[in-house]
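Possible regression after last week's pipeline update?

I re-ran a chain I had predicted before the update to compare outputs. Posting the input and the new output here so someone can diff against the archived version. Not blocking, just want to make sure nothing changed silently.
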Amino acid sequence: MFGKLTDALKRGLAKTREKLASGLAAILPIGRTLDAATLDELEETLLTADIGPKTTARLMEEVRLAFKERRIKTTDDCRGFLEERLLAMLSADGATLNCAESGPTVVLVAGVNGTGKTTSIAKIAWRLSRGGKKVVLAAADTFRAAAVDQLAIWSERIGCRIVRQPTGADPAAVAFDAADAAISSGADYLVIDTAGRLHTQKNLMAELEKIKRVVARRIPGAPHETLLVLDATTGQNAIQQALEFSKVLDVTGLFLTKLDGTAKGGAVIGIRDQVAVPVKFIGVGEKPEDVEDFDATAFVRAILGREDVPTQPEGRAADR
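New output (post-update):
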């Protein structure tokens, strides 16, 4: 099932594919002999695709070495080599959620304001519910009434239970109550929303640690999955956020948002290259169903304009 392109993925990455694939087609036409000038143009194309300077430099170092050693001689060789290297960067990634051995699986979701965190939580809950799983949501972003209300609206649409308290309540208390509710109702998953925060605010980071401790006292081993939501279009800032959050939380997966409507999908490669955490999901739209299990082969083929594979059935993560 890996390596298949869904229609949603192709639509969501259309602008990135148009930018990168058209650039590659121009400088790496089929059947040409490779030369140093072409490699310089390739480097510029990768930079404009928002892969990032550090990652681009690393890629080009490998490409130029392969060219020097005559392992790649033609534009076709170069395309194949580039795809191979991009896949190697992303090959360990995938959409499998960690799962508790018994009782509810707790998924803690973190991220700064503006990344699409609450919508991403709705997408995860929708995907799990669609797969027949019983989901409880914890509205632990108690500092913003709008955040709680937004999550409540999503819970009603999806058809899952939400645990909430008044604005300003202790987020850890909400999380603890939600853990109780998940256990008593026989839920399969408890997904905890946390306050959108800047990674430089140490007091709010301490709050995340408190939520972890409190939930772990009620559900051993929790959280079983800690997802960090990042806006993929912010490039280097997203990388810095991931590095800072990882100092406080044992981040187990990334959810990269806002890949639809932008030509900056290449930023996923730069983020993953510099952050040692697998990408598990990507957001490609506003609706709950606009979430894709991350598949390295499908992603690379989508941004490189490879259309020679059939469509992947949807809902892979939900079937787990």
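Follow-up from reviewer: compared with the archived run. Confidence is low (pLDDT under 50) at residues 308-320. Marking as no regression found.
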